[in-house]
Design brief:
Blueprint lengths: L24 H14 L3 E3 L1 E3 L2 E3 L4 E6 L2 E10 L3 H19 L3 H16 L3 H12 L3 H27 L9 E9 L3 E5 L5 H13 L3 E5 L5 H14 L6 E3 L4 H8 L5 E7 L2 H13 L9 E5 L4 E5 L5 H13 L9 E7 L3 H12 L20 H16 L3 E5 L3 E2 L5 E2 L2 E5 L5 H4 L6 E7 L4 H11 L2 E2 L1 E5 L3 H10 L6 E4 L16 E2 L10 H5 L2 E9 L13
């Protein structure tokens, strides 16, 4: 509600994804911005209370596909900066939490428009260079999805506020959706720029103040999101941009009595550690903190003998190898019937050998580099172990080179044991493990799929047989929070497929939906009686 009106918010539509065809205006604009960023090294300060803060303790930002090339150096927050950010956020809380909801919404609607226009090549180029995404992967992430988050969250905010209780005659009942008391600690990952923008902004939209700790390997793009918020009119102190040591920042934020919530995307281990810290300090908080997390995945593609082989192959390649498999939703294991495997294997090997991998500034590339040396070494370790194991065979790929960039070839491992390590553990790289099952063991193999992994994020069934689809949908109903039928398990779109999983994959609070926003409000019930009773006796007493 705003003043004496109840405004209708703009009807959201999913932002069109640009194709970046040769000689298109958006292609030239993006290439121009890539040259600007590649030709200079910028300095990235903290942004606390709307001001730039430089600590002198800096870290380099490099291109994963050209790790000797420095894009920037960023200042790292220390304990004093974290304490100042917390206090500044708390100082901003009163005015921000009581600001008209339409005014808060207008800021993020403006951010969406700025990103759809002038900031589009900036965010896309920063994501491409800093996180080694192709132009297509950057476009669907740092442009289209983040624009969608801004626009659809405003729509969901309005829908949530409109949810009101019944009021019988003589009584007026209503709900007030208050901001949480204190600050929200937003911890964002490297792999999606859109998550970097959404985790702090979705909580802020609902009236909360936020400490934003971005991943060190996504600071280049995330810094421009912070600048975007400023240009859109976000008041100082509402979202504090504080890159730095996760352990140090987390130690201070997670034990502060004013911690009101955690909005997290990252590894399962880190999230569980944060939850443990909150539990150990639960007696010291003003309120019970809201804990929202989307963590790991060991996402599957399950094929029935009736599956279309061509569609299945495309889903496996795109689902497993787009953005080098560095998506929590990436296809990481596949269950293929024996009758389909010979033809499917030939098709996969032939197409994967044609994949171009390299510098993402070359628009012919389908893949770039993995994010950093630690990731590279971890993925290479899984591949080398499979190369030596009698239970596994690398049927394509397996090459790893880090002289120029952190490049791992798209790799398929055929395993004999459905419980082999690469079928169970999250690798977070371009490695897909395949278990070939006997056609008459469809149900038995689904049971393996359900219990093999501790995660339950995404999965897919491929079948033309409707009965098989229905059976898989039922048997695997708890194995994935996002379940796809005849499509790859990646690519959830805001407003279309609310995203999140359970078990070891998180709290399943569905980013890109009203359900997520509900976690960032504390509901107050107001009940007004117009003609209250004036005597204590009830009719039955007569």
């Amino acid at each position: 509600m705003s003043g004496n009106s109840v405004p209708q918010v703009p009807i959201p539509h999913n932002e069109p994804v640009l194709n970046y065809l040769p000689n298109a205006p958006e292609t030239q604009a993006l290439k121009d911005q890539l040259k600007v960023f590649s030709g200079s090294e910028i300095e990235i300060p903290l942004l606390i209370n709307g001001k730039e803060v430089r600590t002198g303790k800096t870290e380099a930002v490099v291109m994963p596909h050209h790790h000797q090339h420095r894009l920037a150096h960023y200042h790292k927050a220390g304990p004093e900066e974290v304490k100042a950010a917390i206090q500044g956020a708390l100082d901003a809380w009163q005015e921000w939490s009581t600001m008209e909801s339409s005014a808060r919404a207008a800021i993020f609607l403006k951010a969406g428009e700025l990103l759809a226009t002038r900031y589009r090549p900036i965010l896309n180029a920063a994501t491409m260079l800093g996180q080694s995404k192709t132009c297509h992967q950057a476009e669907i992430d740092s442009a289209a999805e983040l624009i969608d988050f801004f626009r659809f969250n405003v729509h969901f905010q309005r829908e949530l506020y409109a949810m009101q209780p019944l009021s019988p005659p003589g009584l007026w009942n209503r709900l007030e959706y208050r901001a949480l008391e204190g600050f929200v600690f937003a911890v964002t990952p490297f792999n999606f720029t859109s998550i970097g923008g959404n985790l702090p902004s979705s909580a802020a939209l609902m009236g909360n103040v936020v400490l934003w700790k971005p991943a060190s390997t996504s600071i280049f793009s995330n810094y421009f999101i912070a600048r975007l918020f400023q240009e859109a009119g976000l008041p100082p102190g509402v979202i504090q941009f504080i890159p730095g040591s996760g352990a140090m920042i987390g130690e201070l934020a997670l034990k502060d009595r004013n911690l009101a919530g955690i909005h997290f995307t990252g590894s399962t281990g880190v999230f569980q550690g944060m939850w443990k810290t909150v539990g150990e300090n639960i007696h010291g908080f003003r309120s019970y903190p809201r804990i929202v997390g989307e963590t790991g995945g060991k996402d599957f593609i399950f094929a029935h003998p009736s599956a279309d082989s061509a569609a299945l192959a495309t889903a496996m390649i795109r689902g497993a190898f787009e953005y080098q498999g560095q998506k929590c939703s990436a296809a990481s294991r596949a269950y293929i019937p024996k009758s389909l495997w010979p033809e499917l294997k030939e098709r996969l090997v032939g197409e994967i050998k044609q994949i171009r991998m390299g510098d993402i500034s070359d628009f012919r590339c389908f893949m770039g580099a993995v994010i950093d040396r630690n990731s590279f070494q971890n993925i290479r370790g899984y591949i080398e172990e499979a190369r030596k194991s009698p239970e596994a065979q690398i049927i394509v790929g397996g090459g790893c080179k880090d002289e120029v960039g952190y490049f791992v070839e798209p790799t398929i491992i055929e395993v004999k044991n459905p419980a082999y390590r690469t079928m169970c553990e999250e690798i977070f790289g371009p490695v897909l493990s395949v278990y070939v099952y006997e056609d008459n063991r469809f149900e038995e193999t689904m049971a393996f799929c359900d219990r093999t992994s501790p995660y339950a994020l995404t999965g897919a069934i491929f079948a033309q047989d409707r009965a098989a689809i229905e059976e898989a949908s039922h048997k695997l109903r708890n194995a994935a929070g996002n379940f796809y039928i005849n499509n790859k398990p990646t690519g959830a779109v805001v407003g279309q497929q609310p995203f999140g999983g359970a078990r070891g994959s998180g709290t399943n609070d569905k980013a890109g939906s009203l359900f997520n926003l509900l976690r960032w409000v504390s509901v107050r019930t107001l009940s007004e009686t117009f003609a209250p009773p004036t005597h204590y006796e009830y009719p039955f007493m007569k």
